Amino acid sequence: MVGSQHIIFCKKSGCPVVAREEIFQTISTCHTNVGHSGRDQTWAEVKNNYAGIKWDVIDIFLKTCTSCCQRQAVKSLPSGKAMINLSFLIRVQIDLIDFRSRPDNEYKWILHARDCFSKYSWAYALKSKRAAEVASHVFDQFCSFGPPRIFQSDNGREFTAGVIQEVCNMWPGTVMIHGRPRHPQTPVAI
Ligand SMILES: [Zn+2]
Predict the structure, then answer these.
(1) Domain Integrase catalytic: where (predicted)?
(2) What is the average pLDDT score of the chain?
């Protein structure tokens, strides 16, 4: 009993169990506390402070967050420019594919690199999405196939980290850019 409220605590985590009708408000508070960060950060905040909220509810909640939905809409606007690709290894895009739901033992991520001209793809199994691990594969790829002129990734922390930039700095002809890599299936306004 705390004040006039009955509160049940989870025996395992020692966190208060959130009543069904308060789940939305609780997630909302946690989501605001982490500055409208994505699912993982919001989930970490919820998990560290409360019990009785399931992981998948976070996803549902995030779809209802007005500020996050607006931000997404702005992000996905086509820029109105067509990408010009002249030959192999002019522009290579990288992204991470989340395989945490179907891990192969300790490998939970796939680093995917794709040449925009030839559509040739490289894939590397990763144990984590730590920047150092990503960087070591980027380094291997540059050594084996040569560095691209433009190396493009999204704004994920694993790509914006200094260690990736350092790898790119070893090849002065390579420019690293961040921004949403345009998916080939996405229609592009010309
Ligand atoms: Zn939000």
Answers:
(1) 74-190
(2) 85
